[in-house]
Amino acid sequence: MCDLLRINTDRGVMINDGRTRFSTNGQPIYHFVETSTFSEYTVAHIGYVAKINPAAPLDKYDLFLGATLNVAKPQKGSSIAIFGLGAVGLAAAEGARIAGATRIIGVDFNPSRFDEAKKFGVNEFVNPKDYDKPVQEVITELINGGVDRSVECTGSIQAMTSAFECIHDGWGVVVLVGVPNKDDAFKSHPVNFLNERTLKDTFYGNYKPRSDLPAELELEKFITHSVSFSEINKAFEYRLQGKSIRCIIRMED
């Protein structure tokens, strides 16, 4: 994963001098995705730091909606499909709701996620298992030509293809958020580009921390569990079982 995302070479060092601020026995320890949030103390570039209200609950300031608001940029009254209704997908849906999208379609193989997704603005649901044709064809027929925007949040190369091929010719935009396997290759017919569809990617939602954070966000509804750092494996179990959206890790326990 670190090699795939170029975390060590591009995102594991300080921007100003290309070096790390951590080491052990003379060997560098890289800054994971430039943040190193599992360490009790860290060093971050000043451009990544934003001052927040001292009264703000620190355990809730870790959720971002940038893939939708900053990159997909859905218009008020538009349609959008969200592929994957995990924590990232629900954040994308929340961003679509804030932007004013009226048709927010959630795409997921797990129907138990649909009720929870309604809290984040999702108002239509598609389970690919329920159809005998590609899900992009289902969505294109549902929206009469395709959605205005789509956001892929699973890392599945098949979902990425579907997300791209379900957007509308002429103005459709897809944003890829999920991280694919190292050897995966995105494939789609060139005519889809000739028909003026736009393919975008994002990292950290294209946020500028000091200026882009929204003033008001309903963060509490993302948090479903809280465990101590010593129980961090429980948090991964909750995610793998599809039971949690966001699980807070309490470093002090």
TrEMBL record:
Any Gene Ontology biological process: formaldehyde catabolic process
Family annotation (InterPro entries): ADH-like_C, GroES-like_sf, NAD(P)-bd_dom_sf
Residue ranges occupied by any Alcohol dehydrogenase-like C-terminal domain in the UniProt entry: 87-218
Molecular function per GO: S-(hydroxymethyl)glutathione dehydrogenase [NAD(P)+] activity; zinc ion binding
GO cellular component terms, semicolon-separated: cytosol
Domain of life per record: Eukaryota
Keywords: Metal-binding, Zinc
Keyword Metal-binding: yes
PANTHER family: ALCOHOL DEHYDROGENASE (PTHR43880), ALCOHOL DEHYDROGENASE CLASS-P (PTHR43880:SF26)
Summary of subunit composition and partner proteins: Homodimer.
Protein name: Alcohol dehydrogenase-like C-terminal domain-containing protein
Organism: Ziziphus jujuba var. spinosa
Species classification: Eukaryota, Viridiplantae, Streptophyta, Embryophyta, Tracheophyta
